[in-house]
Amino acid sequence: PCSVLAQNPSNAVLNLGHANGTVTMWTPNLSTPAVRLLCHRGPLTSLAVDRSGTHMVTAGVDGQVKVWDVRALKPLHAYFTRTPATTVDISQQGLLAVGCGRKVQVWQDALVSKAQAPYLVHEPAGGPLQQVAFCPYEDVLAAGTAGGVSSMLVPGAGEPNFDSRIADPFQGKKARREMEVAHLLDKLQPSMISLSSTVGQVRREPKEVQKERQG
User: Fold this and answer.
1) What residues contact 212, with CB distance under 8 A and at least 6 apart?
2) For the ranges 67-81, 167-181, 188-202, which has the lowest average pLDDT?
3) How far is CA 190 from the centre of its chain?
4) Which one of 45, 95, 144, 203 counts the least CB within 10 Å of its CB?
């Protein structure tokens, strides 16, 4: 069974977390997983991928929150929590939010290197945490609990310099309609979705031509 799902924003690959502790990566052009990775000794509770597509964060019932290098498919470091983390999310600026029990921990610079202490700790009202999510282009973290939804300010979480051709937080109704049409025209074909985010490469000269130039 699978209860955890996240998409890689860089290459559109779907990452699924399973009860046996594995993460599988799926592409539309394959009927079997492109990658099967053993991440935890127990079921996964949540996973997230940063917008560059290079780091993946997984949480499991074994009380660990692991940071993975998606390119090498290797773990970088791990964090231990007293209560198993139920939800994780990564902001546009690389801040990591971890929900454990009734508390939300926000870690800064926790992907590239192992942080020693959390950047922020908050206990929202409403009971145990269900889901946390960063608001794009805003320094706001939303936390869903058993009793409702609350928000907290996280300085430095959102992208301050947005590109209006990709996403414009202040766009009107007409601009939104035009952007939807542009996205449909620029839609990526399913056959082009793969683990490698490189669309093309420069064709090298044959060895015979290289020898003639050197000679």
Assistant:
1) none
2) 188-202
3) 20
4) 203
Confidence of residue 127 (pLDDT cuts 50, 70, 90): confident
For the chain, what percentages of helix, strand and coil (3-state, to nearest 5) are there?
Answer: 10, 40, 50
In the block, residue with structure tokens 């949480």: 59
What is the spatial distance between Cα 33 and Cα 47, in angstroms, rounded to a whole number?
Answer: 17
Q: What is the 3-state secondary structure (H, E, C) of 125-170?
A: CCCCEEEEEECCCCCEEEEEECCEEEEEECCCCCCCCCCCCCCCCC
Other beta carbons within 10 angstroms of residue 8's beta carbon come to 21
Selection from 51, 55, 47 nearest residue 22 by Cα: 47
CB 157 within 8 A of CB 93: yes
Predicted confidence (pLDDT) per residue in 187-203, tens digit:
777 777 777 665 556 66
CA dihedral 52, 55, 60, 63 (to 10 degrees): -130
Q: Which two structure tokens, joined as six digits, stand for 78?
A: 């791990």
The residue ranking higher by pLDDT, 56 or 170, is: 56
* Neighbour-count burial for 54-89, b at 16+ CB within 10 Å, e otherwise: bbbbbbbbbbbbbbbebeeeeebeebebeebbbbbb
Evaluate the CA torsion angle 154, 5, 149, 168 in order and state its sign. Answer: positive
Q: What is the pTM of this model?
A: 0.81
